[in-house]
Amino acid sequence: MSSLPEEILPVDLLERFRTRAADYDARNVFCQEDFDELASRGYLRLFCSEHDDGSAVGMAEAVACQRRLATAAPATALAVNMHLVWTAVARLVERLGDDSLGFILDEAAAGEVFAFGLSEPGNDAVLFDSRTIAARRTDGGYAFTGTKIFTSLSPVWTRLGIFGKSVDEEGEELVHGFVTRGSAGTEILEDWNTVGMRATQSHTTRLNGVVVPAERIFRHLPVGPNRDPLVFAIFAAFEMLISAVYTGIADRALELAVLAAHQRPPGMDGIPAESRPAVRSAVADAALGWDALDSHIRLLAADLDSGVDHGDRWFARLVGAKTHATGTARKLVDAAVLLSGGRGYSNDSEISRLSRDVTAGAFHPSNLESARRTVATAWLGPDPQV
User: How far apart are CA 33 and CA 76, in angstroms?
Assistant: First the structure.
């Protein structure tokens, strides 16, 4: 196993991040110091080539790094995730024989920060349709008008990946491009006031006729499901790296559950907490759940790196990993809260913060309903009633 996670995220760094996480959460501010330290250590260049001072990692190493980071600061890991997703997408399409996104890696190596501007309110089609209008201009560029939500890294991004729907006499198509920070018509609403994952500062972004020049438009796709490598790459990178963050929360929750069992004082009968059957059963159940998740995430990340052909079931496997990670993390956090007793209910405790952070997992694509549709289609074929 590579030692990169331990090298790039040493224990002392993680302890600083863990200490700051409580303050970021309490004040509802961006994880700026964490972000600056990660950038200075080359963390944003994980997927960049060694020639560009990157680490040239595969998905398995990136997942291991994000898991480790999330044990200390889940919101920091989730925020940085969105930059890493774009760089992972560039690597994945390159492996599929498409080098059209190489500029993402070049710019990331030069210090640009990428963010995800694809999510939209009310868009349950996700990548296959858009509520944002992309109006074609005579110079080949497009003017985008619409609202993007959950725009992590809002305070620091310099490149925002967006898409919108173009409708003209030639038909409909989805147009993907990158907005440069400071472009006219870009409006960031400082409206991030959530239960958890507060340090991501994932503000709403309004696009008010934002012009993306032709050279920053990188894909034209049909409306609806399609097999373009970009779609698979975004889906794979997003689901795996999201899964990594929540697996990291599960890692830490199990640690805290074990710690709580050892630290709780004996009852009035003098029996240590770790000797009580209910406590031992709770820790055992948590560990069994963690073990299955650990194996699942490692295997699927390795499959991506080695190019295993899961055919039409790749998407089902990816949503399966995401729902497994977020669901198991929630169960482990709940167990740790109960094992912690009254301390776990205190708002300034780490496990309390994790219990709020982990709730965000249900809101990332794919949600459970969408995941079930994907898996059912993979095994049963398309629904004949649709």
Answer: 10
